[in-house]
Amino acid sequence: MPPRKKSEPSNAETTHSGFSLDTRPIQAKMPENDPAAEAQRLNQEVETARIGNGYINILDLENPLIFGTYNDRPEKMSEINKMMTSFERHGIQSMDEKNALVIIIERSRLSGNQSLDVPWTDINALPHVRFLDTAGLTLASGQHRVAALRKLMQTHTDELVVQLKRLERLQNIDNPSPAQQEEHRDLREHIAELKGATQIKGKWGVKLYDADILLASGKHLARHLSRNQSLHVYTETEGEVLVSLLRDMADANKRDGQAGAISVLQKEIKGSEKDKNTRNSKILHNTSLMLCLMEDILPLGPHYRKRKELTVRWLHQAMNVSMGMYTRWMSRQADVLRLLASQDEFPKYQDTCNMIEVIAAGGKDAETTHARVVELRAQILASEPGDFTIFSKFLPAIDNEAIKHFAKFKGALGTWDPHYETCLAQYRTSVLNLFKAAWKTKNKGGRTADELVWLDRVMARMNLWLVPLAEIHMPLPLMTGSVMDNVWESLEAVSEGFLETSRWFEPLIDTHHIHTPYGHTLDDSTEAFIWSFQKYISNLKKNSFLRAGTYLGGHF
């Protein structure tokens, strides 16, 4: 047998299993996304919008300072206290460039006879920025610095008042003892130091950027500018990432409708899966929840911004049995606020008060008036939705009223319980008093006659909506934080029932391959059986199951 030929050398080695290993030299592969390069590119784009530098007097400025437009970090007292400690230990370095406040403003709002093109190298040359109006100034960041400065100033002022009273008491003593005399001397020195501390002028360096240029292609440059660039690494919290995404979805929703919002969401989901962030990915895949947060929760402002519903950790943990039902409840209650804010024709507030009094009195006209109230409630449900953000600034106060009036009620909200009805009546009166104080003053806030008529109708709708109608309507309190907590706890209490009911539909889901309208994996049991129920019970109108439910008085 001739000798076996030696195999030619190759760039691959054959293993015992017969597979070849690639032994060619490994070529360098550049990363697809370089964060440093991207940050540098954004920095260059941002600088094209720079107007100049200067300073403002925070404590003596007529223009209110507006935070949170681009940097969505909520104000935290712990951060303010840390900043105050830093001020006391290291001084208030208000004119240091890295501590400068960033103002995003239209050039037309700046006084024309001032030169702002001054480098930061000469602090003494920085001009006092002058504005042509007293409208709010949008700041990219710095809310904790401003809040700490104001709190520190107030602390010194309050202590000064106390020590001056103490000094006056010592001075009114006819024959002070040596110890009292020494205390008097020490107190005078301490008061002198306090007076020096209260001489803080509030002078703070600012950088100004042209809003028209910065926002020309969207808000991404403003959001980049709002990040704390002085930190070596800026890491957004998961909550900030979530809220930023919701804002992007809201922008797309305004431009292209819900399809645009879902497109933005799908793009973020791909990035989340690439980064292997399973916690975010699970939340983002729940399209109905994300749309609810975008449309129904985020627009209502700060009261909801600090809620658990906008924290990734809670949402991830709560994505079990009840989230589908809870999502629909939030959407339904937000729709109630929109209906109450409608500008459609409606009786005057005082007329609705008279109707309620007639029904309560139980006279000969009670039955006719009750029928009229039933008609008006149906009219509310058929109204053209209005701008529900008019409730935003009242939500904390409304929530306080809910906590106060329902504190001793231990049952489920929205049920036919005499104790609940009593609490609800007290709550309704208190809430309406809040709105009366703000809205019923003639021409308060420079409102037009049409606006006053509209606000009166909003109060009239609230007045009737919060009144129980026997066998027809038992209202919940308006959706505020404490009410949301109560509803979530109630849903969780019956989660085993939801889970059991959802199992009835499992064969149907497996057989017919039911998908949600958005094609994502079903994240919780209630979402599964609601979609299957709506899809296959043809004699129910759209969403009628949600409105016909018996739980919590049919508020789904």
Overall description:
The chain has 556 residues and is mainly α. Helix content is 54%, strand content 6%. It has helices at 35-47, 77-90, 143-171, 178-197, 211-214, 220-226, 238-274, 278-284, 287-297, 302-305, 312-318, 323-340, 349-361, 366-381, 395-406, 418-439, 449-465, 481-493, 495-504, 506-512, 525-536, 544-548, and strands at residues 12-14, 20-22, 50-57, 65-66, 101-105, 137-139, 203-210. The strands form 2 sheets. Strands 3-7-5-6-4 form a 5-stranded mixed sheet. A two-stranded antiparallel sheet has the order 1-2. α1 (35-47) crosses α6. The radius of gyration is 31 Å and the shape is globular.
* Helical content band: 40-55%
- The radius of gyration computed from the alpha-carbon positions, rounded to a whole number of angstroms, is 31 Å
Which stretches of 5+ consecutive residues score pLDDT under 50? 229-235, 512-523, 536-556
Shape: globular
